[in-house]
Amino acid sequence: MATTDQPVETPTSVLQEQARRHLWLHFTRLGSYGQGSEIPIIVKGDGCYVWDEHGNRYMDGLSALFCVNIGHGRAEVAQAGADQAKELDFFTNWSFAHPRAIELAARIAGLAPGDLNRVFFTSGGSEAVESAIKLVRQYHKMTGNPTKTKIVARKTAYHGTSLGALTATGITSLRAPFEPFTPGGCHVPNTNTYRLAHHMQPEDLAETVRERILFEDPSTVAAVIMEPVQNSGGCFTPPEGYFQRVREICDEFDVLFISDEVICSWGRLGEYFGCERYGYQPDIITTAKGITSAYAPMGAMITSDKVAEPFLEGTASFTHGFTFGGHPIACAVSHANLDVFEREHLLDHVREEEPRLRGMLDSLRDIPIVGDVRGAGFFHAIELVKDQDTKESFSDEESETLLRGYLSAEMFRRGLICRADDRGDPVIQLSPPLIAGEEEWELMEGVLRPVLEEASRRMHVGGQ
Ligand SMILES: Cc1ncc(COP(=O)(O)O)c(C=O)c1O
Fold first, then answer.
1. Does residue 8 surpass a pLDDT of 70?
2. 447 C-alpha vs ligand 1 centroid, how far in Å?
């Protein structure tokens, strides 16, 4: 059971009733919370742990959806937001500037690789991706290529939910209910080397981008968008040289390269930006989540000098914006968040601890249902299979029984929050706060091993 060590005085039944009646949970089957089953209500956080309304403690193995990189409960980060609210509560970035946004833009430009020097703030990741899609279109129009509008993205990738971002998102079940949306999304294979198509080698994967651009006609393609490690589908890392080749292809056809680092920046892969881990230089980075460790909502689009250049002259303007982009409180919180990164050497910590996290996960490979372990930094996935040798996966119905009927609830019951996901083949994803260490790896293993062993038995995997 999740450990109960801090009773919290909350009228639980009232909150449950109000949540059922009034709160619309995102990406959630509202019907699954009948009178017999509770909505998990999280009331408090500290370090790598959170507590529910009953006082049960959980390890936050997902950093509250890849967000809380510095861990929960940092009083000084909260204080930075409060102090800022007293000094200047809000002013907008439409035509005006304020000190915290200016300082943060300069600080981010100093950390970002190469000539990524200009920062456009948003309130979250979808807004950052939406901004990038609009920017690349306007950029090409202003530089004499008005027909360059299409976006090449990868299958099963998640780039957000607004209608423009959905163009790039490559998950059919998230797209279909909302079609038609912004046209121009073209999808190529992702870097799932565990399930590489028979006729392909890892080094062929980047060539699919070239083929697709040629097929569409390069004069119609505005940008390629990719995550350094693709989240959806389960932490697909790139093969050797993949991103360098994609960069070359983009240059060959005057296509801009957007590195969507909503998850993969701010230490998640052991660097401030995921592209640094793999040694490639994008034209635009989209980011969010860890930029404030989610102590306040914020996202950003960071662009190269080349991309910003046409907007700096005469009457030109990027005719796009969001009221809350660069909110002073979020900017102050982001500064305090980055101060923690520096003070506690969090990037070094991730690099040092990555092999131990990975070693713990690899040690689970003897469990019959564990097919693959992959990822980078503090961002890993375990793919679940029916047969380790043939890599046979589960049917949709079996995935439903496995993930929703058992795994998610059981891991939570035992005190571990992580993600059981079947947007591709079924995976468990782990993305702990960047302060996690030995104690947390032991705790994770203590939950994962018995739960995966029991899942193997229930699904009759490995002759069990
Ligand atoms: C790679 C990527 N892009 C975009 C988004 C959308 O971000 P948000 O949910 O903040 O709108 C996400 C969200 O997880 C993401 O992982």
1. no
2. 28
pLDDT at 33: 84
Sign of the torsion formed by the C-alpha atoms of 208, 211, 216 and 222: positive
What CATH number is attached to the domain comprising 416? Answer: 3.90.1150.10
Q: How far, in Å, from the CA of 59 to the mean position of ligand 1? A: 22
Alpha-carbon distance 229 to 145, whole Å? Answer: 31
Is the same domain home to 402 and 330? Answer: no
Query: So what's the pLDDT on residue 4?
Result: 54
Q: Which of 321, 343, 365 is the last residue of a domain?
A: 343
pLDDT of 9 over the 70 cut: no
What is the tens place of the pLDDT at every residue in 57-78?
A: 999 999 999 999 999 999 999 9
Boundary (domain end) residue, out of 343, 376, 395: 343
Q: Does the pLDDT of residue 210 top 60, yes or no?
A: yes
> Residue 7: what pLDDT?
46
User: In the prediction, which pLDDT does 378 show?
Assistant: 98
CATH number at residue 121: 3.40.640.10
CB 185 within 8 A of CB 133: no
When divided into structural domains, the chain yields a total of 2
Pair 377, 268: CB distance under 8 Å? yes
State the Cα–Cα distance between residues 38 and 54, nearest whole angstrom. 11
Whether ligand 1 lies within 6 angstroms of the CB of 59 is answered as: no
Q: Is residue 302 lining ligand 1, measured as CB closer than 6 Å?
A: no
